[in-house]
Structures are given as structure tokens and as C-alpha cells.
Amino acid sequence: MKLHFLNRTDEQKRLARTLSSDGGALAVVYGRRRCGKSTLIQRVVGNSGVYYLADQKETSLQLRDLAAEIDRLIPGFSSATYSGWDALLATLNSRLTRSISLFLDEVPYLVQLSPELPSILQKYIDQPGAKKINLVLCGSSQRMMHGLVMDKAAPLYGRAVEILKIKPLNPGWIRPGLKLKGTEAVEAFSVWGGVPRYWELAAQFSKLEDAISELVLDPNGVLHEEPMRLLMDDMRSAVQPYSLLSVIGQGCHRLSEIAGRLGKPSTSIVRPLLQLVDLGYVRRETPFGENSKSTKRTHYKLDDPFLIFYFKFLQPNKSQLEVRAISPVMNRIRGQFQQHVSGIWEELARASVSASSIDGCEWGVARRWWGAGIDGAMVEIDGVAESLDGKALLVGEAKWSDARLPVAELKAGLLAKVKNCAFARGRRIVPVIWSKHAYKNTGVHVLTPDAVLDCLQ
């Protein structure tokens, strides 16, 4: 099932502006696999451009196939043989009567086989005289795309007029994407995250469990080896980063714990861990109010719902799944699934705060708080945020339960926790409960899945 193209309005506008140039403009589009980069640029190509999807063929074959694509605009262009990229670009530029856009998708494949290509493109962009080709370079290897255009030593450094990192879609888009209501949308997001291709695959199934079983658990499923594929795009070796994701996904969050589980010194895992942070697969979490650069109370968490789901449920059961014992694994997932959704719901609740107006205030980024209270007892609060004017604190509790919650008791418990926290002294407190169900006249702000997802679109 093909999904409607969702969002990406700003990206389309920026690309269209770049491509309206008379020639010689460079735009770069990169990001994690399956997030819609190719679909985005194909929508922008129209009749004024040439789109070419690279693969791992020899350079001579790539040039031949690209020349065949150019035939659509310049009949007979492929009848010549081009000795290299510089010859093809020069010939194309000379034969054009108007400016066009040339989209090179998965350009890292081209550079692997033709390391001189970035320098050739730089020479074309920098040369004086009329240039009729606007270039769009696209790739899934975030590491290689960084090296091509954002490394100061790279030939194309400083040449791009637009550099667009295509990230997973915001959570709220899963409702129109999969035609789901609030609670079902949160449950689906807790498996697929914001990756539109995962949504497209899941849309083939009427039930979430069937989609999980067929796409993820089955050894022949399209997403059964997805984390390894993602890492292979960006890492020279995927063994250590995969191990890090696995250990964090199984509940080790402090640097010393992660290193201990791997049997390595902490210093040896800092670099690959930070690479995973840069790629958006892991995040550093610090308590509200603490400086993330100086605090030692840092937790490392997986920062993608699909990876959380995968390393919580699939990876520990890999041996069973390889012998196709899918039903027992599915039963285990079924028994723990709502607990898993609860964790994702908590993340969504926090993410929605800075996009919300609650109690007449605009709020900064919400973070979790944990630590010793004034009386020495351990306290944990799901979400804390400061109002932008600095006068109030939002404090929140996220609950994911089918039962109707005793909101008055939750409010009282939340305020008792806050009273035990030194950071809340002298501040106006705005309590919030994030709940599956709506409540009225409770004296506390209760936000439901639809309210949260409305903020995250």
C-alpha cells in the first residue's frame, strides 16, 4: 500500500528555491535509510530535471546508465561514450539550452568507485562562465555525506546552498499516515517510530500484531535485520555499535554499566557511543536542571522506537526466531507490550511540552528528573519543564493504563514528590497528567494521546 506523501513542506520549498537558480547551485539531502529522501527529491524533479539512482556498478556502467536517463531531455545523449564524470558534465552543460537539475541519489556509491567525483563537482561549481546544471546530491550514509560536504577538508565544503537532513517524521503524522486514532496511533508509533517506509509496510496488515510477526519477527521479514543494515550504512564495522545498542536496549544506561557488560574499559566505548548519538540512534539523558556537559548523572538511552522494540523483544529471542518459533516470541511480546508502550508514551508526553501552551504558559524542553529528595528518599518525576518566562514549573506524570485512573490521588502524589525537590522551591507549580483517558474538572491538566499527538505534527 502506497502512503500519501506526508509533511516535508519546508524541505520541498527549500529544494525548489535552490533549483530555481540559473545553474551551478548545489543542494545536499541526507539522512537515515527509509525516511523518504528519494521520494522527496522525485517529487521535486518534475520535467526540468534528471533523476539517477546509483548502485554499486563500475563507473563506466554508471555513466552509461545516467546518459540513458539524460536522453529523456536530450535525445541521443547516450549515443556517445563518456570517459569520466568531467566529460559527461561538460558535454551535458554545453548541450543544454536551459537550466536543469541533476539529482544523484545514493551518491556515496558513486564516490566509492570514483573518489575524484567530489573534486570534479567542485570544479564545475567554481568554474567561471555559464553553468546550466543545478546539482542535488542524496545519500543514506550519514558518515559519508558528512565527509563529502561538511568536512572542512572536503572539496565540496562550503559550496552547498542547502543541506537538508531528512529525519523520521514527527509522531503526530502517524495518525493520517496509518489512519489511526490516538491510542492505536501511540501503540503503532511504539513499534514503527517515525520512519515512513515502516508505516507503508505496516499498512499492508489489518492488525499490528500481524505486521510485527511478518515484518520483524519472521527471519524472512523485510525488517528482521534492519538495525544491522542501518549501522552498515554509517560504520566501518557494525559489531561494536550493534553490541552497544543491544546492551542499552536490555537496560544498561550508565557508561560504567555498558562498558562492564561488554567487558571493556569505559574509555574504549565513548567514541562509538557518541557516533550513535550523532546518528540519532542513542541519546544522552540528564536530569532536569543539570548541565549536560558537566554532570556525571548521564544515562544513555535508545532514541528510536523501532530500535527500542527490536532490542527489547527481537534480539534476545533471535535464536528462537531463526528456527521459526515465532508464536512463543509473539506471546512474550503480547504480555509485555503495554509496558513497552508506556515507555514510549512517556517520551511522547515530554516531547509535546515545548510545543504546548498549558496553563497560559509556553514551556521549554521537558526532561525527566531523578535523584535524592530533600529528605534523602529517591524521587523520580516523568517530566519537568520551565516556563519560558522562568516563573513556573510544569511537572508531569505519564500513565498508560486501560483502567480509569484516580486523578486526584495522582495529583496529590505528584505534588508530594515536587515538594521534596529542592529545584521546585519558590516556584509556581503546574501539575499535568498524561493519560489514555480524558477527565474533566479534576483541578489538574490531563492530556490524552490525541492532545499529545496534535502537538507533535
Structural class: alpha/beta
Would you count the extended β strands for me?
Answer: 14
Quaternary organisation? single chain
Low-confidence stretches: none
CATH topology of the largest domain: Arc Repressor Mutant, subunit A
Secondary structure: helix percent: 40-55%
Rg, Cα atoms, Å: 25 Å
The first-level CATH class name of the largest domain: Mainly Alpha
CATH architecture of the largest domain: Orthogonal Bundle
Average of the residue pLDDT scores: 92
Write the layout of secondary structure elements.
Elements: H1 9-19, E1 26-30, H2 37-45, E2 49-53, H3 59-70, H4 85-95, E3 100-105, H5 107-113, H6 117-126, E4 133-139, H7 142-149, E5 162-165, H8 174-178, H9 182-192, H10 196-202, H11 208-217, H12 226-234, H13 239-249, H14 255-262, H15 270-279, E6 282-285, E7 299-302, H16 305-314, H17 318-322, H18 326-353, E8 357-358, E9 361-362, E10 367-372, E11 378-386, E12 392-398, H19 407-419, E13 428-434, E14 445-447, H20 449-455
Parallel strand pairs: 1-4, 1-5, 2-3, 3-4, 12-13, 13-14
Antiparallel strand pairs: 6-7, 8-9, 10-11, 11-12
Helix pairs in contact: 1-2, 4-6, 9-16, 9-18, 9-20, 13-16, 16-18, 18-20
